[in-house]
Amino acid sequence: MLLRRLSRCVLVTSAATVAALTALPAAAHADTGPWHVAPPPFSSPDGTGRDELTITVADAGNGLDGTSELRCDPAGGTHRDPGAACATLDRITADGTDPFAPVPAGAQCTMLYSGPATAHITGTWHGRPVDASYKLSNGCETARWHRLEPVLPATAP
């Protein structure tokens, strides 16, 4: 008899729970969309302008400080290695990645200070204006710098 009462109680409670859940309004579930929304792809060259960048490096030491010009297609300018720099930028942008994008807001970065070096890149790449700053203040910024080597000079770690 006790078992029959318990099973009836469970059945009534389960039915009430299902009824309550199905009675919720549609707004009770908000569709938050995809977990990650990719930025629009970094376009390929459109033939309307040249790829020209001005790269200014400060506090890198070892004769790496200064301003250089980088032109691509064909590679040239006053950059130390324009061919390798243009190839690096082409490789990064081949899948639509913006090589000059800042570290995403809210990124969790190690507190790894890699030195006082800073860089600033301005100009045009693949028909888009560029105005990007680089520093070695934490792990994310250091990794971002290293991804652009040899556009930016190689630095320790």
Question: Can you offer a commentary on this structure?
Answer:
The chain has 157 residues and is of the alpha+beta class. It has a domain of 97 residues: Subtilisin Inhibitor (2-Layer Sandwich), CATH 3.30.350. 27% of the residues lie in helices and 20% in strands. It contains 3 helices and 4 strands, in the order αββαββα. The longest helix has 21 residues. It is globular, with a radius of gyration of 27 Å. The N terminus is likely disordered. Its main location: secreted. This is SSI family serine proteinase inhibitor. Keywords: Disulfide bond, Protease inhibitor, Secreted, Serine protease inhibitor, Signal.
Looking at CATH, the homologous superfamily of the domain at 51-147 is Subtilisin inhibitor-like
On the 0 to 100 scale, the average pLDDT is 78
Query: What is the correct CATH architecture of the domain at 51-147?
Result: 2-Layer Sandwich
Shape: globular
Keywords: Disulfide bond, Protease inhibitor, Secreted, Serine protease inhibitor, Signal
InterPro entries: Subtilisin_inhibitor, Subtilisin_inhibitor-like_sf
Family: Belongs to the protease inhibitor I16 (SSI) family.
Organism: Streptomyces tabacisoli
